[in-house]
Amino acid sequence: MPRLLRYAFVLLGAAILAAVLWHTDLAEVGERLAQLGLLGAAAVLGLYLLAFTLDAGVWMLTFIARRPSLAWLFRLFEIRLIGEAVNNATPLGSVGGEPVKAMLLRQYLGIGLREGVASLVLAKTCMMVGLVLFLSTGFALMLASERLPATMQLVAGAGLAGFAVGIALLVLVQRLGVAAMASGWASGRFGRGRHGERLKRWLDAIDDMDRQLVTFYARHLGRFFPAVLCSTGNWMLGAVELMVVMALFGQPIPFSDAIVIEALAQLVRAGTFFIPMSLGAQEGTFMLALGAITGQPALGLAVALVRRGRELVWLLLGLVMFWLFSGRPLHPDAPERA
């Protein structure tokens, strides 16, 4: 993606956020935020810590050659913290931190690039499958609700259908080893000539990684299903967080409504992946959805700002961890030392 286009998306998000702020009673938003308090903020961060740990656990389950353990979970938690901070701090959508995670795995844990990349692909896939299950639950509850406009339900249904088909195709491509077949064809077709050897090395890497994906789905479904379950639980924790924040604001909502609103927010976030942190889009979604359910749009913006504050704290923690990693010695089995 060209750099100018990335920054254009940042400006787009800022413009959407400005429009949301313009159409909201900011004084009421401020009053709501003051109700949160330090204990409320600690509760929000605690819930996100649990959700983040679940995500690290999902990632741990994708390393089929390594036995799960608390020590291994903690190391992956650290690396994921750094990678997600890079994702949120740079205008690269939600992929900027993935190469950083692979690099850290290689340098500090001695994990080869192919295994590291395969684990990242598998972890992201498990998270997306879990998200589809969560969104499906939210959409079913949305259809049963009479407070959301039919247009919102229609758009959400279309978005969910497209997203679910995309994820299903992604899993199918991994399960059937399509990338390996394509690399084999390309190697035979273009593997000769001046650049043939370099291309062959790249294609061999793709083939090896794809075989790891096929092996995971064929022999380790005992890890895949728990990983998807953990991912679904992680998305559910977002709804729990919403319930807690609303209760602290003095406007408690049932869990079913929290699931609907969180599902809408995550669907919009997935659809606006090209805008860093879905700036503006997330705020607008919370304002519209909570406005429709409670009749108080300012509540939605207050909730969105609480979530932004939590993301900012996590971003800062990740950048601090990145700085601490820079002083660590490389793993003795790191490939570049071999």
Alpha plus pi helix count: 12
Radius of gyration: 22 Å
N-to-C SSE series? HHHHHHHHHHHH
Helix content: over 70%
Number of strands: 0
Tell me the major beta sheet.
none
User: Shape from CA axes?
Assistant: globular
Query: What separation lies between the terminal Cα atoms?
Result: 34 Å
Which structural class matches the secondary elements? mainly alpha
Proportion in β-strands: under 5%
Q: Averaging pLDDT over every residue, what do you get?
A: 82
Would you mind describing this structure in some detail?
- The protein is 80% helix and 0% strand.
- The protein is mostly helical and 338 residues long.
- The chain has one domain (3-337).
- The model has no long low-confidence stretch (mean pLDDT 82).
List its traits:
globular, mainly alpha, 12 helices, 338 residues
Provide a quick synopsis of the model.
By secondary structure, this protein is mainly alpha-helical. The protein is built from twelve helices and no strands.
Chart the SSEs and their pairings:
Elements: H1 3-22, H2 26-61, H3 70-89, H4 97-108, H5 113-144, H6 150-176, H7 178-190, H8 196-219, H9 221-248, H10 255-271, H11 281-294, H12 297-325
